[in-house]
Every structure is written in C-alpha cells, then in structure tokens.
Amino acid sequence: MDELASVIVVLYNSGHYIEACIDSIMKQDYPHEIVAVDNNSTDDSCSILKTKYPHVRLIENGENAGYGAGNNEGVKNAIGEYIVILNPDTIVEEGWLRELIKPLKNTDKIITTPKILTYNGDIINTCGAINHFSGLSFTRGLGDASDMQSCKKRISGFSGCSFAIRRDHYLSLGGFDRRFFMYNEDADLSWRANLNGFKILYTPLSVVKHDYILKMTPKKLYYLEKGRYTILRKYLSTNCLLLLSPSLLLTEMLTFGYASR
Fold first, then answer.
1. DSSP E strands: which ranges in 12-103?
2. DSSP character at residue 62
3. Residue 103 carries which DSSP code?
4. What averages of pLDDT result for each successive group of 10 residues across the chain (261 residues)?
5. From the CB of residue 165, how many other CB atoms can be counted at a distance below 10 Å?
C-alpha cells in the first residue's frame, strides 16, 4: 500500500489561483492530504477553501512570517510519510505526485523536484537549480521548449515552487530557515541537504505549470542579495571566504552593476 503524502500549499492573497491548484491536486492518483497554510491573507483565499474544499486542512496564521516559516508550520501539522511542497499559483499535471514520490520509497537521502513549465505550458520555468559557491542560484532550463530537459539527473538544487522529501528527512534537516522571508530559502535548504549527504534528483515525468514571469524588482533583488549573504555566512568559513575572495569580489561587481541599471 502506498504511504500517504502531505501536500503543503502556503497562501498569501492567492484566491485567484487556489481553486485551479487544489482541483489539480485532487485529481492525483496517489494517496494524499492537502494542508493549506494561510499567511494572513486579506483576500478571499480562506473563505474559498472553507466553502469549496472543507476536506483541506487549513491553518490560518495571524501574521505573514514568510514562505519558509509557513511551510514549516504546514509540516508540523502534516501526517503523511512524505512532504510535498507546492506553490499556490500552479496547476499540476497527471502523475505529478506519484512521479515525485517514486524515488523516495527507498532508504536513501533523496529530494525530488519536477519539471516546472510556465502557466501556458509552452516553455520551461525551471528544472531545479544550479547553486554556485558565490551564493548565487541559477534557474536550470529557463526558456527552453517544454519537451526539453527530459532526462532524470542529479542536480545541485531544487525549486521551492515544488519538491518532495520524506517527512523525517525534512525534520532532520531542520526545515526551512525562518531568516529567509522570501527567495533563496530553497537554495539554503539545498546547500544544507548536499552537506548532509542528500541527493537532489530532477524528475522530468513529474510536471507542474507555474504562473511565472522573470522580472527583477528592487524588493526582489534586496531579498535575493540578503539571502545570498546569509548563505555565505552560514556555510563558508573565514579561510574559505578569503580563498574565494577574488571570485566573490567579481560577483559583487556584477550584481552591483546589474542592480544599478
């Protein structure tokens, strides 16, 4: 018998998306529960869930503590053997859940991440991430045709939009770091997973459609850079930072130049 998967969906003013997202999860052929965590939305997200989806376990937070903290709260209330993180502005395709869970059924330390397309399904949003020693994280496959990136492979980082992990492994890693309010919380957990002997596996037969457009606002850039510095402080020693200082200095010049455009 298949063990239960807990799908965690963190909401913040996600009323426009939530019905399509929940409906697509409910069509999955793998046993699951849905845990929705609302980060103090001011729209009708909660009322939609209460009215149309009473079977969804809804946790209403009195404040918005961030995406990572919201997911941690969801995991605390989950009962499944497997934890599956999913953004609310998504639609999952048939077989998404089962394909994500398959590699987790052995005793290895594995995290899986799916092929994530744009909302219309035409091109790739991300196929996991490439985490760099500078603290930067690059999107794998961004802009490729939807039929590309078709091979399963081990990669350095998963996407916080959607990934799966055994519940006991998530807890052993400490979950998301609450210091990352938004952005780079997935890169941080990917670093921690790699350092603790986990394999991050890209699973292309698991497919998600994500309402994503690449744009860099000042707010987003601030959180990305704040997260990058936090990662460098957490995982690189002083001696390592000194050895890498020429490359890190070049990174600072490039990011400063980009931000000044």
1. 32-38, 57-60, 82-86, 90-92
2. S
3. G
4. 93 96 97 97 96 96 93 96 98 97 91 97 94 83 93 95 97 94 91 96 98 78 80 84 77 67 59
5. 28
